[in-house]
Structure to design on (249 residues):
């Protein structure tokens, strides 16, 4: 949307100095670092709903002096289309990964801040239509993450309680939702904008490099529940086990 903002400034005869200030204000409001060309950790651009991002954008542009309305900013966003529709999955062979959990009778849900249109586009693109049991999107909730509301809604649909759920996410809004909703296990992953520190501080019980590490972590966790106190003492010996609080190098 930066190019659209720049074009709006030019057509409005805004000076180059003021254009730079307007765009900087816009980037700061949504959490975009133009120097490294990436999202800042757990910023609205990665953790917020599109409705929230559009409102933040409009407010920042107006505050910086650009003659623009919320409605016009919403139109700019709508013209972007399904911007995540062709994003690659964060791990290879995602369908096989999900099927591993389905074999154990685990229900799989998607809780995203993206809207329904782009979410459905991703699901089709990744060939996981038949592997997702439930989903809820940012344009379908009264309260977005980190509120507990999306998790509680999914639990209600699935007929389960939060303490039986594993919440996995890569931003502080994901882990915050897990904690606020009372999820039994909250797993942070380092494939998004959330840092290890942010994910832990907002509710993650463990942080993994990516979701591909989840099966081994869960198998180890289940094994520990079955072991005697003597066995656990041996496992906790630093010489015998590497901490399961795995982080990326």
């Amino acid at each position: 949307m930066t190019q659209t903002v720049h074009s709006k400034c030019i057509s409005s005869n805004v000076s180059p100095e003021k254009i730079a200030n307007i765009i900087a204000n816009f980037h700061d409001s949504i959490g975009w670092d133009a120097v490294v060309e990436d999202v800042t950790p757990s910023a609205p651009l990665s953790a917020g709903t599109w409705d929230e991002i559009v409102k933040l954008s409009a407010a920042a542009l107006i505050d910086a002096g650009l003659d623009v309305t919320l409605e016009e900013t919403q139109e700019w966003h709508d013209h972007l289309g399904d911007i995540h529709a062709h994003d690659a999955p964060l791990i290879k062979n995602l369908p096989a990964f999900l099927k591993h959990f389905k074999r154990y009778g685990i229900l799989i849900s998607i809780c995203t801040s993206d809207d329904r249109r782009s979410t459905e586009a991703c699901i089709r693109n990744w060939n996981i239509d038949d592997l997702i049991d439930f989903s809820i999107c940012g344009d379908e909730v009264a309260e977005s993450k980190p509120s507990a509301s999306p998790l509680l809604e999914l639990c209600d649909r699935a007929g389960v309680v939060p303490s039986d759920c594993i919440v996995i996410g890569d931003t502080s809004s994901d882990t915050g939702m897990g904690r606020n909703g009372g999820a039994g296990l909250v797993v942070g992953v380092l494939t998004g904008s959330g840092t290890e520190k942010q994910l832990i501080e907002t509710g993650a019980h463990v942080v993994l490099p990516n979701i591909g590490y989840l099966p081994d972590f869960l198998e180890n966790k289940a094994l520990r529940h079955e072991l005697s106190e003597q066995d656990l003492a041996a496992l906790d010996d630093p010489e015998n086990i590497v901490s399961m609080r795995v982080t990326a190098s």
